[in-house]
Amino acid sequence: SKQQIGVVGLAVMGKNLAWNIESRGFSVAVYNRSSEKVDDMLSESEGKQIFGTYSLQEFVDSLESPRKILLMVKAGAATDATINSLLPLLDKGDILIDGGNTFYQDTIRRNKELSEHGVHFIGTGVSGGEEGALTGPSIMPGGQKEAYELVAPIFEKISAKVNGEACSTYIGPDGAGHYVKMVHNGIEYADMQLIAESYFLMKNVLGLSAEDLHEVFAEWNKGELDSYLIEITADIFKKKDAETGKPMVDVILDKAGQKGTGKWTSQSALDLGTPLPIITESVFARFISAIKEERVHASKVLSGPDAVAPQKEQKEVIEAIRRALYMSKIASYAQGFAQMKAASEEYNWDLKFGDIAMIFRGGCIIRAQFLQKIKEAYDREPALTNLMLDEYFKDIVESYQSALREVISLAVQNGVPVPGFSTALAYYDSYRTETLPANLIQAQRDYFGAHTYQRVDKEGTFHTEWMEPKA
Ligand code: NDP
């Protein structure tokens, strides 16, 4: 008898997803370019409905029709190479699923190319890392709706569950799923940056120890900020280095790495012309962290202000930082969701933002209690232009803005960099300002380049001869 689904690519993600699928009662054929990974997996899969294959022909022949094939290979050229080898072996109506961290434009292209051969192509975001892949990731599939319907029962069974609801839903056509996964990763960058700034202030201005910080984050995780990233942050501060006995965070070099998905999100914002300053600033913050040697040199050349002690009790300052963090997080999600709205219009994806918030609630890295609030906001108003205009979020940002202002002031006075907090507040203040100074920019553009401007008092396009004629 034939297998119900096949997995190509048996590195950490493919192997764990295959086991996850098998554990929900499906039979799985597996294939990997180098055969050792197939052997290794089979030796760890005793008693499981996992069927190893050693050629693509054998793999394809082992699958029931229409074939459902999940690719979990390295994103980019490796995915194209794998698709090209598989394509001649497939039949019309077969479904290829790419679960890698693929750039959404590649998914749009592959979806189009494969549909010309009658093969369905689903590009799906999978979040949750190795552990999530095995026990229940958040799944963001995009592609032909009719193909999605055929794989939906599998996706829903293997995904994370929140209150019994699957963290998997149809996102939209072609690249929609990978786009949403990309924005998820961008939001993750911003969440991490904002948490890092909170930590930095409490350490450098309030002098909290790692043990104190563990307590603070553990406490925060019980309230509005309840989330996976806050939870692991609390855990991190508890961990001691086995070699030195120091807190782990204090022996880790302050140079942040990245794989590029945050950068892609910012690049897309620039292409769409939508403001995404918090995520973008978070990408830049990693870049600044990466020039460690330069910073070490500059620290000996350039000075900052003398320390200024906070005017309030430590407990109150910590609460202000918590509020600053939550308000900035709201501004960041407002930007991310506004960008998805712009992309949805640009690419005709008809994204359902409430559904997206819902599948972010479990399995993935940004999972958080507060995503329920985002879902409720879009239930109230599916066409919401900005999350901060929703009644729940409006109340929070209005009452927490004074804390954010206070925290930024304290940071500025002490010379502690808070790029995420600062840009969150600038976004809030820009967004709520009826008249910005862009009138002057328009005047300058018209002055030096005759770029024309519009007027506040009548319709039309205008140009002014700015220079007085020489007498
Ligand atoms: P890798 O990204 O390390 O990819 C390794 C797999 O790709 C192996 O099966 C390898 O085969 C195959 N491969 C590489 N080059 C080629 C090629 N030219 N032709 C055919 N096959 C090739 O594995 P991961 O499991 O870490 O990730 C798989 C995908 O999932 C990636 O797109 C990744 O970005 C994404 N992802 C990863 C997450 C994670 O936490 N790691 C989380 C979410 C998504 P071989 O053994 O023969 O070299």
TrEMBL record:
GO terms (BP aspect): D-gluconate metabolic process; pentose-phosphate shunt
Gene3D superfamilies attached to this UniProt entry: 6-Phosphogluconate Dehydrogenase, domain 3, N-(1-d-carboxylethyl)-l-norvaline Dehydrogenase, domain 2, NAD(P)-binding Rossmann-like Domain
Protein residues bound to NADP(+): G9, L10, A11, V12, M13, G14, N32, R33, S34, V73, K74, A75, N101
Active-site residues per Swiss-Prot or TrEMBL entry: K181, E188
InterPro entries linked to this entry: 6-PGluconate_DH-like_C_sf (IPR008927), 6PGD_dom2 (IPR013328), 6PGDH_C (IPR006114), 6PGDH_Gnd/GntZ (IPR006113), 6PGDH_NADP-bd (IPR006115), 6PGdom_BS (IPR006184), NAD(P)-bd_dom_sf (IPR036291), Pgluconate_DH (IPR006183)
Enzyme class: oxidoreductase
Domain called 6-phosphogluconate dehydrogenase C-terminal: residue spans: 177-467
Alphabetized NCBIfam families for the sequence: gnd, PRK09287.1
Quaternary structure and partners: Homodimer.
Family membership: Belongs to the 6-phosphogluconate dehydrogenase family.
Protein name listed in UniProt: 6-phosphogluconate dehydrogenase, decarboxylating
Lineage, top ranks: Bacteria, Bacillati, Bacillota, Bacilli, Bacillales
